[in-house]
């Protein structure tokens, strides 16, 4: 909309407001007039928004939408201003001291507004505030506030604007974006002139440093990487604020007022300028859609809004990639382009600073002891400038495309950062990365050196990815660049996850994570001959995500084709492919199977086959889980992997058999007897006789002794409902052990009490004694760093469990009052799945359920299993973001497996109903009374 059109619209709206006043006798200051004026403005605002949204759907123009909303706001503010002057305050001739300029600043000053944006205004005064100026500003502001708008405002003289701009970068930035809106134009012109002469002149370096420091602090606050799967479109890395920061810096340094001037100044090429506009337009379109859709100033692209945005923006699903995933991939590619533009503009600024340095300083830079450039050993194609690698000439890549990879190799070898000019030239030379370069043995050797560097391979892999090199040199990697997975489990895009997994391996190898990963750290030195295999497998393990085929199988096929090109032998290629094909096996078995069950270990060993594969797989699994995101890895998962590894290694070396199991159980019984030697002989013999072999083999002897003292003390005090807690800082797990009379719904009520307290359950060990007692241990995620705080928390949960079991608390009330739906879960739908398997264990049927997580679901599932007259022997609880995968080892009440097909069908139907929320909503209502009767008996 042109300025003339905006003014015409303002005049029209002003006339409509005047007409309202005339219907009330012409005076606009009365309450009735103001109410009618406000109602009319609300109607106009709603129509403006509706029209802008309609146009956004029609042409998709994000910048156009933001400019339309800004123009509409200009029209409204000018009409309010004129109406106030003419009919509220009835002023026609202003004195010189009463004149003021209404100026738009901040985002509004850039003439772009999202539907929920703040309206930033500044009332510029000639000298000091006058009564009329104060009344006018107050009228305009209150009218805007009553319209439901968020308004930021300041009232300042020109002198105050200049003084504050020099002292405060935020104010300086706001005024840098100022735009004349209405009122006394001469005041605005004077402010603009003085701002350029007294603030901007000779302060560019200080301003740039402040804005870059502000940007870095914002990135740190928002999560450092631009590849978070729930990014902030305004303040996140690669978002709108980054583009605005670039233009602020360029505007301040080059003294330009329009983005197109950056081409004339030589900062951006025409194609780079077009990229700037494309990025800005896309981000504005997404932001405007987001505000329209949510009805508020929402800036985070949370899971709950991503599907809706993908639909509004017209994305369609493709095989292997959903519409929402295609939308988010586009978003991350745009964020990556914003990073490229940052490097380009910073390179131009650096060059200009050198040119503008005083002559004497330039002379000093030519002296031998102060020379900026240094040679790099072993090449004439690259130089070092201020500890950063740069090209010696503009044709080094064209003359030898291998130099594109070689430059990253030198950077890794010598620990060099990259000069922005070099990265800009790489970006402009990406077409040189073709099949000839990909098949060049030199290039592939250099790449493998980078991937397996003993320094910091992730650093240069990430630089290669940011520059666009990695995706072109490894085309299959290019397919997963910026690819997100629409779930709450993976925190990063696929490419970022792969690079982070390599980084975890590197840090374990360098001893940085020795205390956190003792097993992997101890195994790596013996795998020196296979470290290339391990690095390659980690780099490629998820490379086939987003394809219709299972990504593990498809990834192995990619490795079989790619590894020979990278210099791997046939045997090494086969090993890399196997690791990728089975990279989820160890994690699945460790977290979802009973590791004390002989069949679990036998099946796992049959899959892995060799000790070498076992060692490589456990390290790969650790790195994979650790790289998923913050909070996903914990010491408990590490302990499960270590247990599985030790049991499998024992079996592979011939030490695991059923006979051995019986011998081990007897040895465990004798060890417990020995540890209880201070008990009376008859008492300790009776106690040890209470426990079945499964307990003695599954529980560490230290915990067995602790349980013995706990049971002895509780029964000695006639406490038939009791709990005890134990923390494990390394595993980040807290154990709550419950002693109670055995009851079918015991695990269900314990799970409900834990969930109502906000505790995340990771597993459960369910044991019964030969004399009818249940000894159940629940494993919950640690919440507090301090042991004292964590013990107090766990003790409170234990008391809550006791209260429910004793009938003092009513479970449905607890669930209703204390349990909240996790944020974002409503965005997902998961088809429930129930599998009953009789081949995974020799003694138990294994029931595995998958479904959408929700508060109390474990309690509902275990309650349903009890209703189905099933005896739960162990439970293995795993949560992958929004999805629960819970595994239960069960028998019928006679101790047999579930073999009847009709009974299996009924179990599946009941559990599917529970997973879909159609089961009994109060599955544990009768527990308290039942347990209270058990206690009384």
From TrEMBL:
Keyword vocabulary terms for this entry = Hydrolase, Magnesium, Multifunctional enzyme, Nucleotidyltransferase, Repeat, Transferase
> What EC number(s) does the entry state?
2.7.7.59, 3.1.4.-
Q: Which domain of life is it from?
A: Bacteria
Cofactor(s) demanded: Mg(2+)
Instruction: Give the ACT domain ranges.
Output: 735-811, 846-922
Q: What HAMAP family does UniProt report for this protein, alphabetically?
A: PII_uridylyl_transf
The record's comment on protein family reads: Belongs to the GlnD family.
The name this protein carries in UniProt is Bifunctional uridylyltransferase/uridylyl-removing enzyme
Gene encoding the protein: glnD
